[in-house]
Design brief:
323 residues; alpha/beta; TIM Barrel; eight-stranded parallel beta sheet; two-stranded antiparallel sheet; 14 helices; 10 strands
């Protein structure tokens, strides 16, 4: 498939790995890039910018193909030196960066000067328009189905993608709710130029997480997610486990503070889930696409399957409807 995104990023297939805290590591990112997609490592999985530099070197030792780095700009209880991470990205000669959360505007001059293509993740049309105005090379439009932070407008991809396609002229990457060739074909028909997948790549052999997590995704249905932090306008979609239920109950009380919730939603506890396989050790992100995950293939098998299914669908069933 040849789309504006494959041309922009120099990749073979319009399939991109989502930025995933604690999971977007060198092995998984390199496998996605080697399969013809775009692998992405996650900057803030590393407590120091120097750790990010080491991870970039690790990816380059595994693949010569394009890859990117995700930098998520969100309010945190512990201050993060985003500028230091950006300086590492520039110094390391990156060509692709995915930003998410707050606007990347403060860092755009540095990115542009370094010739870095910026993909900004947006959960609304107005944010996509702002990203285009700032000079982002593409937008990743995130529907309400997604894992992580779906924004506060609650607009699903089926509506959000064509609205964004009508509004912006830069390439669009469809995010949230994509796991197979049907999703890729649908995204292309809605005006997108590629799909971005996070949760689906969790359930692959190369994802460096405990097998219990992968099996939980295979066993789950589309109802196995929960929305937390809604009362703080910082909504997050996560796997529905004991901790998720506890957080939702506290929020329902109406007077809970972020300080009370912090021990429950800490990132370190979420990392422990991936390391130990204890699904209730902390909160961990998962999208509604859990209902479509039925196996744990290699990354190459998954990417090639998705592209093949989409091509067969476009040439076969959809083309056949016209006759």
């Amino acid at each position: 498939m040849k789309t504006r995104v494959t041309d922009l990023l120099g990749i073979e297939h319009p399939v991109i790995e989502g930025g995933m805290q604690w999971v977007g590591r060198a092995g998984l990112a390199a496998a996605v890039s080697e399969a013809g997609g775009l692998g992405i490592i996650t900057a803030l999985s590393h407590p120091t910018p120097e750790g990010l530099a080491d991870e970039i070197a690790a990816v380059r030792s595994l693949t010569a193909k394009p890859f990117g780095v995700n930098l998520t700009l969100l309010p945190t209880l512990k201050p993060v030196s985003y500028e230091a991470y950006v300086e590492v990205m520039v110094a390391e000669g990156l060509t692709i960066v995915e930003t998410a959360g707050r606007s990347p505007e403060p860092f755009m001059p540095l990115f542009k000067k370094a010739g870095i293509k910026v993909i900004h993740k947006c959960t609304s049309v107005r944010h996509a328009l702002k990203a285009q105005k700032l000079g982002c090379a593409a937008v990743s439009v995130d529907g309400f189905e997604c894992a992580g932070h779906p924004g506060e407008d609650d607009i699903p991809a089926l509506v959000l993608l064509p609205l964004a396609a009508d509004a912006v002229s830069i390439p669009i990457i469809a995010s949230g709710g994509f796991a197979d060739g049907r999703g890729l074909a649908a995204a292309l028909s809605l005006g997108a130029d590629a799909v971005n997948m996070g949760t689906r790549f969790l359930a692959t052999r190369e994802a460096a997480i405990h097998d219990n997590v992968k099996q939980a995704l295979v066993d789950a249905d589309e109802r196995q997610t929960a929305l937390i932090l809604r009362s703080f306008s910082n909504t997050a979609r996560i796997y529905r486990n004991r901790i998720a239920e506890e957080v939702m109950a506290l929020e329902k009380r109406g007077d809970v503070t972020i300080e009370e919730l912090a021990p429950l939603v800490s990132g370190k506890r979420g990392a422990a889930v991936y390391e130990t396989g204890d699904l209730d050790a902390g909160v961990w992100t998962a999208g509604m696409v859990t209902g479509l995950i039925r196996d744990v293939p290699t990354v190459a098998e998954l990417v090639h399957r998705i592209v093949s299914e989409a091509e067969d669908l476009i040439r076969g069933r959809l083309a056949g409807l016209l006759s």
